[in-house]
Specification:
The chain has 16 helices and eleven strands. The chain is α/β, with parallel strands linked by helices. It has one domain: Alpha-Beta Complex (Amidase signature (AS) enzymes), CATH 3.90.1300.10. It is globular and about 70 Å long. The two termini are 21 Å apart. GO terms for molecular function: ATP binding; glutaminyl-tRNA synthase (glutamine-hydrolyzing) activity; transferase activity.
Length: 499
């Protein structure tokens, strides 16, 4: 076990804090020092409150000293995506339209982190309103991949993935609407999970696409990720889409690392043209590894997956158009041209023009068009029919196999700016992850090696039925153990890491 707290796993840190071997204050200070050292290059954080974090840490130490029995992550620092409302820190969704906004309430996930004793270091950068796959759409500058600072850390939760990959935090939160946890986890060499839709509360999460948005965890090990998943998930009566069911036994599954007897399906449609050869090489090696560990591997066809990307980019913008109508310059947030010389409609129009970035405007326009009279059935209605076909493909597949696997993303991290002017190329980064969001199922990305072409991380995606999240952790843990990645300090060789 490393003696540097920033290189220890969250599980190790929690155990050391509870035993008194380390104090939460010392662990938190080490991570704050790491942020001060490297975040000028990485830009993972939009807001860090050193004093508040240290106060939280000392409070945990006091409670432990008094003999309180706290949870396994008590005193462990965490980076929190700037899409979750927090009463003690600004929540901007990386948008100028919410610059400096201090929410009057905590998101359920934020409150549950506090209840579990986790120390919130600060809020992380992201694509504005979670719209993007590279964190280049933030109004506050790009985040950079700690493996190679000239490359993207994925998105939209790229600040969170960069923070954990750069050892600025052992854990982070994210949201996954079309792959926004799994894709950045894959390109940053991390574990990232999209829980079953409704398994984690959306209350206090600034909405992008309400039928798709799913809060989830990042970690450097499968067990760390499972512990965080368990800490903030579960039924929430304040979220009308929350599932009133027990959290799947993800922590138990993460400790099993056994796939003997499982049936694993390889999705034939998630392969072929556009996939980086090194990504496919590591994926096929992972499938062979699972077979060698006692799993039965079969090919599975899900034909509707080929239309998932098109359906997603009608459904998500349509819901975005509706959700972002609330940012009207009247109630909170940015307001421009408020000089008495402009009418209400002018103030709204000018504020939205200045406050929203290009990608957000693009999606609002796409969604508004798709929902407009005369086009609704042809676009949004047809996309929802495709969504039903995708759900049926999953149901048929899970009638034959326990989980499905694919690459998490078709390529490794691409250079900053490479796809900035080509929205379609950017959207293709989520080709493998989108079907699970449309169906509402569970999925996880686990590192499965480095691509030989560029030495950058590759992710294996594991998909399971709704409320069978534990199956994804069971497979992920088996891959992690077999590849020797579960040391908590560095999942993959980090000799050439940029920070």
């Amino acid at each position: 076990m490393s003696t540097d707290p920033t290189r220890m796993s969250a599980h190790e840190l929690g155990a050391a804090i509870r035993s008194g071997e380390l104090s939460s204050a010392a662990v938190t200070e080490a991570h704050l020092d790491r942020i001060a050292e490297v975040d000028g290059n990485v830009n993972a954080f939009l807001h860090v409150d050193r004093d508040a974090a240290m106060e939280q840490a000392r409070a945990v130490d006091t409670r432990l000293a008094a003999g309180e029995d706290l949870g396994p992550l008590a005193g462990v620092p965490i980076a929190h995506k700037d899409l979750f409302t927090t009463t003690d820190m600004p929540t901007t969704a990386a948008s100028r339209i919410l610059e400096g906004w201090q929410p009057p309430y905590d998101a359920t996930v934020s409150q549950r982190l506090r209840d579990a004793g986790l120390v919130i270091l600060g809020k992380t950068n992201m694509d504005e309103f979670a719209m993007g796959s590279s964190t280049e759409n933030s109004a506050y500058g790009v985040s950079r991949n700690p493996w190679d600072l000239s490359r993207v850390p994925g998105g939209s939760s790229g600040g969170s993935s960069a923070a954990v990959s750069a050892f600025e935090a052992p854990l982070a939160t994210g949201t996954d609407t079309g792959g926004s946890i799994r894709q950045p986890a894959a390109v940053c060499g991390l574990v990232g999970a999209k829980p079953t839709y409704g398994g984690s509360s959306r209350y206090g999460v600034i909405a992008f696409a309400s039928s798709l948005d799913t809060p989830g965890p990042f970690g450097r090990t499968v067990l760390d990720t499972a512990l965080l998943h368990e800490a903030f998930s579960g039924h929430d009566p304040r979220d009308s889409t929350s599932i009133d069911a027990p959290v799947p036994p993800v922590v138990d599954a993460a400790t099993r690392a056994d796939v003997a007897g499982m049936r694993i399906g390889v999705v034939t449609e998630l392969d072929g043209e556009g996939y980086q050869p090194g990504v496919m090489q590591r994926f096929r090696e992972s499938v062979a590894l699972l077979e060698s560990l006692g799993a039965t591997v079969v090919n599975v066809s899900c034909p509707s997956f080929e239309t998932a990307l098109s359906a997603y980019y009608l459904i998500a913008p349509s819901e975005c158009s509706s959700n972002l109508a609330r940012f009207d310059a009247m109630r909170y947030g940015l307001r421009v041209a408020d000089d008495g010389d402009h009418g209400t409609e002018d103030v709204m129009s000018l504020t939205r023009a200045e406050g929203f970035g290009p990608e957000v405007k693009r999606r609002i326009m796409l969604g508004t068009y798709a929902l407009s009279s005369g086009y609704y059935d042809a676009y949004y209605g047809s996309a929802q029919q495709v969504r039903t076909l995708i759900k049926r493909d999953f149901e048929a597949a899970f009638g034959d196999v326990d989980v499905l696997v694919s690459p998490t993303t078709p390529t490794t991290a691409f250079p900053l700016g490479e796809r900035a002017e080509d929205p379609m190329a950017m959207y293709l980064a989520d080709l493998c992850t989108i079907p699970t969001n449309l169906a509402g199922n569970a999925a996880l990305s686990v590192p499965c090696g480095l691509a030989p072409e560029d030495g950058l991380p590759v992710g294996l995606q594991v998909m399971a039925p709704a409320l069978a999240d534990d199956r994804t952790y069971r497979v992920g843990a088996a891959v992690e153990a077999a590849l020797g990645q579960n040391n908590g300090g560095a999942l993959l060789t980090r000799d050439a890491v940029a920070v």
